[in-house]
Design brief:
The structure is a homodimer. Chain A is of the alpha/beta class and about 350 residues long. The first copy, chain A, is about 40% helix and about 15% strand. Chain A binds a DNA duplex (30 and 30 nucleotides) through helix 2 and helix 4.
DNA sequence: TTGATTTATTGGAACGTTCCATTTATACGC
DNA sequence: GCGTATAAATGGAACGTTCCAATAAATCAA
């Protein structure tokens, strides 16, 4: 039990019969030390059960090897994938990423950011919680700490952003629906406090306009970005006088909800009502029918964000270019009426 | 950009015209300071853009406020839920949990653990990666650092474990299948290098024996714990001479795979072949048909683990009781009665 | 007034590293 | 033998906090 006073390099030095400086050198893998001395020291390290105190070291070095990843919702596989993409990159760069979850709570986010800064991280990658104000990052900016946003952008902030091309994704999806012959379209889910929402909705609107769908034949229903939200959106839409025949959903979760609600009403998703999702999470391909969705490559964006961060740290700057990731529409079986267009991977 | 030499309490002291000790006291919210002095100091803190250096503080205090959560697979919603449950508890205790993902890689796990220790965490909650040897935790134990395992247990380790009652869960599920009239049962997925596997398989076996299913009428197919693994298991099983009519799956992912594979063969999950999952992830209720599964309350187990950890830290011990969480079978639509005729049209 | 008591504030020594400037030991050329 | 270069190891001052012991200022009892 009695956690003994932990060993320091001085204990190692005594054990090995050298000076603390020598131990320090060995710890850093310096070539200045005679191999046999290094060996002796390493043995002593093992013997005394030494664990390196990075806090003490950083006091002198002022250059830590940890970066913080602040994620708005870890239980969403979409963001989890992104986080894992980042991890891959950091790991091979010898950097340890610590992940913190904010659960879409700006207050929690503030705490987490504070904590990470106090811990002396070398940089921060943040997927901001809903409702974040740009003031939340003022301290970080004035501290000159490298920071990048992923997936979400804040209204008027100069912090670099790595995000998918939401506008184009929505455009493609809308065009697909129009191409299938649909003339009354809906946009389901999401709420206007998110910039992403405006980007996607903007793509939808512009596509409609460009393809000759009059605005009065489009319907926009805000709602939770979850299955439940999707169910609600569909109910609302079908209760209207001249209901839409197809919907672009803010994300896949909403799309799943819409499909469930359709089934519940005895309607067949795809055949009776076309549905397109956004994000293309893994489950999309496993649904019945398989969901047509806009793929954004979250893991790839995560990797990209990590690379940008590494470069910022390396070049000691807090500035970087935005990066808008390519998207592509993955056509499956959820947009009738033409079944022939479905991909072969239907199961 | 030139990140200015960061402010320290000395800068604050100068700014506010007090001593560094006074600043330190204010920082710790000591009541010994005259309110107006405290106010002056707080203003200075704001002015110089100070950020607390926890590393330096820990050098003296030797009692950090961060604990590490090491998770084997963050992209699995099951584990993500658990992590979030822990977070909730720690947050309200003023402790900051840092999450690290090991991606089921013992080498990565070792690195992550090392890093966390160097960072000076107050404790560790670990969901061990597959293939972890108990030697990986020797250093942590000798350091006297509180540690608990969640979900998975290591063969011969004295580290406390918080896990669901796998044995009983499997028992319940098996009994349910037998109750539906099935007489040839399979256990799908998982591999024997996981203790959990033996626990669940053990429950299955004992239930079969207790309920009069002879061992020769049971089939065990190891496999990846993923959809792909489930697909493979089903293929293997149906290729046998006298195939089973029902399966208990190692986890829900495997079950989903089994259901997909059934569909691909023109068989209806539930009606033609009964499937039970394990873990009861959120998607289980949204599948078609909805999956009958053993619910383990991952978030609840996470919370429990966090509480145990808090108590260990508080009482300065590295010992704690195991905690086996209750499970219950959630019956949905994936287990019809045995109607073997349906199997005939397979292939 | 004086000394004792309470209330606020402070200097200085740690904590465990790194790294610069030295020292010591070893080898070399002549 | 000398001086010089090279290699290996070292002492000590920092880094930014905390906290103890000490001081200074204010209050009080007599």
């Amino acid at each position: 039990m009695a956690s003994r006073p932990k060993a320091t390099i001085l204990d190692i030095a005594r054990e090995a019969g050298v000076s603390k400086s020598t131990v320090s050198l060995v710890l850093q893998g310096s070539g200045l030390i005679r191999p046999e001395t290094a060996l002796k020291v390493r043995k002593a390290i093992e013997d005394v059960g030494y664990v390196y105190n990075r806090g003490a070291a950083n006091l002198r070095k002022a250059h830590s090897n940890v970066i913080g990843m602040v994620i708005n919702d870890l239980t969403n596989p979409f963001f989890a994938e992104m986080a894992v993409g980042m991890e891959r990159v950091f790991q091979s760069a010898g950097i340890v990423p610590f992940i913190a979850n904010t659960a879409e709570n700006p207050v929690r986010q503030e705490e987490v950011l504070k904590s990470l800064m106090e811990q002396g991280v070398a940089g921060l990658i943040v997927s901001p919680a809903r409702g974040t104000t740009s003031g939340a990052f003022r301290r970080i900016e004035t501290a000159g700490l490298p920071i990048v946003f992923t997936m979400r952008r804040l209204p008027e902030s100069r912090i670099p952003v790595i995000a998918p091309d939401n506008h184009r994704g929505a455009w493609l999806a809308t065009a697909h629906l129009v191409g299938k012959g649909h003339r009354r379209l809906a946009f389901f889910g999401g709420s206007s406090d998110l910039v992403v929402y405006h980007e996607r909705l903007g793509g939808f609107r512009e596509a409609c306009e460009a393809l000759g769908i009059p605005k009065r034949d489009t319907l926009v229903v805000e709602g939770e970005t979850s299955r439940k939200g999707g169910i609600a959106c569909l109910e609302t839409a079908l209760a209207m006088a001249d209901p839409p025949t197809a919907a672009l959903c803010f994300n896949d979760a909403v799309a799943f909800g819409v499909m469930l609600a359709l089934r519940k009403r005895g309607l067949e998703p795809g055949a009776d009502f076309a549905v397109v999702g956004f994000d293309d999470v893994i489950e999309a391909q496993h649904y019945m029918p398989a969901l047509t969705s806009v793929a954004v490559d979250s893991a790839g964006l995560g990797e990209r964000a990590a690379h940008v961060m590494l470069k910022m740290i390396q070049s000691r700057t807090t500035r970087a270019e935005d990066h808008i990731g390519a998207v592509n529409l993955v056509v499956r079986d959820s947009c009738g009426p033409d079944r022939r267009e479905g991909m072969g991977d239907a199961a």
